[in-house]
Amino acid sequence: MADHGFDLLISARWMIPVENDGEILEDYSVAINSGKIISLLNPTEAAAVNAKKRVRLDHHVLMPGLVNLHGHSAMTLLRGLADDKALMDWLQNHIWPAEAAHVADDFVFDGALLAMAEMIRGGTTTINDMYFYHGAMARAGLASGMRTFVGATVLEFPTNYAQNADGYLSRALEERREFLGEELVTFTLAPHAPYTVSDDTFRKVVTLAEQEDMLIHCHIHETAGEVEDARREQHQRPLARLKALGLLSPRLIAAHMVHLDKDEIELAARHGVSVAHNPTSNMKLASGIAPVPALLAAGVNVGIGTDGAASNNKLDMLAELRQAALLAKVGTLDPTAVPAATALKMATLGGARALGIGDKAGSIRAGKDADLIAIDLAEVETSPMFDPISHVVYAAGREQVSHVWVKGRPLMQERALTTLDSSALLENAARWRERILGKGKTA
Ligand SMILES: CSC[C@H]1O[C@@H](n2cnc3c(O)ncnc32)[C@H](O)[C@@H]1O
Ligand SMILES: [Zn+2]
């Protein structure tokens, strides 16, 4: 083989490329130039090439970075403030008052950096977020080096960020301008939910998304109450209303989608809607069990998200994909529902496809960006080793994630963060604790 010379050569005991279910490469290397995967090399080929830097991972599995398809990063600063509540009580009586008291540019920047440190330590390389103060979120993304999708929230009611739907949209588009040239930062439009956004605003969002070629990210059919209220007040279920408004398309990432009938699953499939499945948040807020096996069977693309740290309360994608595999079995009483390889694919390639970056991330393949993670499997918790996919999904903990790269740039090496300063983040979090307690806990 010709000796091209590579920027980086990562050799691992096991590799899970993800595209072909169950495929595992043993003792393979990934050759990387300018942040891109150039080729996968067997041991003989790897020994014959030059590389400026070599990383040997002798008892690790190398796999694509995890894609967190639904989160509210800055909500790390509200973690543990209101547990054990149902969604509407949690939102209306606890979270929205706390947000009204504290959310501002510095809250979002500090909270997002804290979230990103946690996510990187757990092997997440991409976050699809929705919150307020989008410039702050985008700056946090650039500082951390994560691939960051910044959801420009749209609501009808006033918050610290804007007064009305037009205000949210115009402020978000203004903040977006500064980051248009940034490859790792992408703005999306994030109408909060069918129960907080009017028909008129949804129509504007669809028009704008088409004009600006943007994704749409929205909470949909999260609780039975949401569906029931809409049926009673608007005489149709939210998804039917969104269809009539033109929202259903491959641009749409529908977060939650817990309460769906058969026709709605078909509708989502027909329109190419992607679903962000949030198993832990759905369990903690007692929202229900999303019909993931039925969505997958209908051909819907499903990714996995953590939701915010105030409703999870971890931003731990390894835990989340384990929950996705387990909850599907509980929901169907079928142990074959969402097998390990399927859960892993949802948490990587499923998320990347939903975000329109399936050609760039979500699997290990020549031509894709090197968004990669390594997990050290030589630990008590993952010994003995029979099947790396089984161990990653069912046994490994996030503490075993050793290395994280985005576009070939290391964000964590041997568990040391390279872009973020953990002690500064801890000091900041402690300061926010004082500020939040100083103004009273929650309403
Ligand atoms: C559009 S982000 C802003 C808004 O959404 C709130 N939020 C966080 N988690 C959820 C959820 O699971 N369902 C509905 N709304 C949620 C967040 O607190 C912000 O106010
Ligand atoms: Zn959410």
Automatic annotation (TrEMBL):
<feature type="binding site">
    <location>
        <position position="72"/>
    </location>
    <ligand>
        <name>Zn(2+)</name>
    </ligand>
</feature>
<dbReference type="InterPro" id="IPR011059">
    <property type="entry name" value="Metal-dep_hydrolase_composite"/>
</dbReference>
<feature type="binding site">
    <location>
        <position position="70"/>
    </location>
    <ligand>
        <name>Zn(2+)</name>
    </ligand>
</feature>
<dbReference type="GO" id="GO:0050270">
    <property type="term" value="F:S-adenosylhomocysteine deaminase activity"/>
</dbReference>
<dbReference type="InterPro" id="IPR023512">
    <property type="entry name" value="Deaminase_MtaD/DadD"/>
</dbReference>
<dbReference type="InterPro" id="IPR050287">
    <property type="entry name" value="MTA/SAH_deaminase"/>
</dbReference>
<feature type="domain" description="Amidohydrolase-related">
    <location>
        <begin position="61"/>
        <end position="409"/>
    </location>
</feature>
<comment type="similarity">
    <text>Belongs to the metallo-dependent hydrolases superfamily. MTA/SAH deaminase family.</text>
</comment>
<comment type="similarity">
    <text>Belongs to the metallo-dependent hydrolases superfamily. ATZ/TRZ family.</text>
</comment>
<feature type="binding site">
    <location>
        <position position="222"/>
    </location>
    <ligand>
        <name>substrate</name>
    </ligand>
</feature>
<feature type="binding site">
    <location>
        <position position="219"/>
    </location>
    <ligand>
        <name>Zn(2+)</name>
    </ligand>
</feature>
<dbReference type="GO" id="GO:0046872">
    <property type="term" value="F:metal ion binding"/>
</dbReference>
<feature type="binding site">
    <location>
        <position position="99"/>
    </location>
    <ligand>
        <name>substrate</name>
    </ligand>
</feature>
<feature type="binding site">
    <location>
        <position position="307"/>
    </location>
    <ligand>
        <name>substrate</name>
    </ligand>
</feature>
<protein>
    <recommendedName>
        <fullName>5-methylthioadenosine/S-adenosylhomocysteine deaminase</fullName>
        <ecNumber>3.5.4.28</ecNumber>
        <ecNumber>3.5.4.31</ecNumber>
    </recommendedName>
</protein>
<keyword id="KW-0862">Zinc</keyword>
<keyword id="KW-0479">Metal-binding</keyword>
<keyword id="KW-0378">Hydrolase</keyword>
<comment type="function">
    <text>Catalyzes the deamination of 5-methylthioadenosine and S-adenosyl-L-homocysteine into 5-methylthioinosine and S-inosyl-L-homocysteine, respectively. Is also able to deaminate adenosine.</text>
</comment>
<feature type="binding site">
    <location>
        <position position="307"/>
    </location>
    <ligand>
        <name>Zn(2+)</name>
    </ligand>
</feature>
<dbReference type="Pfam" id="PF01979">
    <property type="entry name" value="Amidohydro_1"/>
</dbReference>
<dbReference type="GO" id="GO:0090614">
    <property type="term" value="F:5'-methylthioadenosine deaminase activity"/>
</dbReference>
<dbReference type="InterPro" id="IPR032466">
    <property type="entry name" value="Metal_Hydrolase"/>
</dbReference>
<dbReference type="InterPro" id="IPR006680">
    <property type="entry name" value="Amidohydro-rel"/>
</dbReference>
<feature type="binding site">
    <location>
        <position position="192"/>
    </location>
    <ligand>
        <name>substrate</name>
    </ligand>
</feature>
